[in-house]
Description:
Helices cover 41% and strands 31% of the residues.
Amino acid sequence: MTMAQGAVKQTNNENQKLNRIQVSNTKKPLFFYVNLAKKYLQQHNEIELSALGMAITTVVTIAEILKNNGFVNEKSISTSTIGMKDEAKGRVVHKARIEIVLEKSDKFESLMATTQQATANGKVDSKQ
């Protein structure tokens, strides 16, 4: 098995995680991911944010927004390099990867209730 095939197999297995958010820096705005993370946290006790290459800064920013607003606690951060086949160049390109695991804070439920109540009343939460 080549390194590229191994990366594809590993990626396929990881895509099956229901609490994983794979972040791209080109597809969606930052707060789309922040709000998606909050929705995932309503269903799971922890979530995993994952990104490759240039999207790494976006993942770190999302994690910091959630932490600074009291929604989550940081559980773990891991970095690695994976080989991906570049179809245009016909060779394996190595990309940096980050995975940040966040768990619900003790204040998560009360913060979400406050946020939802403010939204229902037509107010915008200044911390978001």
